[in-house]
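Predicting holo structure, FE2/S2 (inorganic) cluster bound.
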Amino acid sequence: MKIQVNARNRAHQFDAAPADKILYAGLSQAIALPYECGSGTCGTCKARRLSGDIEDGWPEAPGRKYLKSPDEFLMCQCTARGDVSVEVASFVQEFEPGVCVPAAVEGRIRDATLLTHDVMQLHIDLATPLEFDAGQFVLVQVPGIVGFRGWSMVNYERNALTLVFVVKKKPGGQLSDWLFSQPRAGTDVEVFGPLGRATFYPSVARNILCIAGGSGIAGMMSILARAARENYFTEYRGDVFFGVRSMKDAFFLDVFSRLREQCGEKLRVTIALSEEGPPACAQADHPQLEFDTGFVHDVAERRMKGRYEGVRAYLAGPPPAVDACVRMLLMSRVSTDNIRYDKFS
Ligand code: FES
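Done. Tokens:
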């Protein structure tokens, strides 16, 4: 089937198979259609149907609240029933050279391990290698549950055959009930990606500031893995703030300690505890790390005073926490171009 997308700057044509979501078909042919979550919540992929028929795979998608007429639809949820022509309200370019082009890949959960009482680490093996940049995410769909979920990769590799994720248990969440209720190793899943623009390349050549809450730390681990591998912190500073409620919610502390050991003093990692003061054993057990009390953006604000020059900030976590961080950074005169995050959870 032929899809035509009329954007503000030009029209794009691409092919789609009957089961292909229009957004995924366009992105996998290197057309940078608008999106944020890719999973039906943000409304960014909204388009208007001009001709042809489309089928909505998830009429209850929360992102439909942003639609204003019966002809509008979410490209990430809809398939074409024949040739269709649609319009989007933004400029749409082709991918720039070097940007990883997303693709659909078959995956299988290899293992799932609890990192805390409500955070799980998953390894998903892929049938074909996937190229991604540090800081990106993929969409994952599991059997029996409608819709994809966006998860950031923890690892960083070119042509990865395994992706590592952390997933937080959400009370009442369908997927989290599925994942946490019984062992899922060996389950086949669908993967689409990579997606996301909050990416890190060594050519950024700026000091890095990572602020993340809970499982949002996943993408930061990928950024740190790449930076450490390239000896980035011999030249540039890295400040990492990881926000959790209490020590029982903290994870990856040993990984941070090893990174700190490997990268030296230019990398500083602070664990921000919002609901308790750091217990005495925290510092003793992890002498390479720093501990503080407060919401992660407040702790970052206190400790980053005078350290914003030449900074590129990466943010992740619950939307209110990300919004608070953005406000704090703008007040600290970090330019919008140097504040990077993807809204996909
Ligand atoms: Fe489609 Fe977010 S609703 S990209």
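The CA atoms of residues 130 and 159 lie 5 Å apart.
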